[in-house]
Every structure is written in C-alpha cells, then in structure tokens.
Amino acid sequence: MSRMVHCQLLDKELEGLTFQTWPGELGKRIYENISQQAWAQWMKHQTLLINEHRLSPLNPEHRKFIESEMEKFFFTGGAVKPQGYVAPGSDDA
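Below the sequence we write its predicted structure tokens.
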C-alpha cells in the first residue's frame, strides 16, 4: 500500500513520495508533507527555472537558488515564473 500524506501544497490527502528526493532538513520536510503529484509540479517548475536562468545543478550557488525556490514553491508561496517568461504557444511568443 502506498504511503499517504496530507499534501501541504495541494491541501489534500494524496500518495506521498517513495523516498526523500532532496538532502537535509528541507528534503525531510518535503518527504513528510508533499505528494507525488505536487513533486511532479515542482519538477516542471524547476526545469523552467534551470532553462530560463541557465542554471547548473552542479554549481553550489545555483543549487542554493534552486533550494530557495523549492522552499517557496512548497511552503511559503511566492514561487513565480522567471521575469519575461512567455509560455511556448502563447499569443505573446
């Protein structure tokens, strides 16, 4: 049976992550409070951030930025798309 969590991001009971996806205290907090569905949403947002800001997950400064955005996305709100971002296929592209 799947592990269920009350997802803090989506505010409902959903399947939890199968393992801790990020190291440290933030990773533990995500594992305990975030669903697989919310994690999938984060992965799309993280990819957008990496591409638009030309980040390297191997760069310590870039990882710190990603971690900061991850905390905002899941727990404090305020995660936004990069300034000037236009979604592919939109009328503004």
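The CA atoms of residues 3 and 83 lie 37 Å apart.
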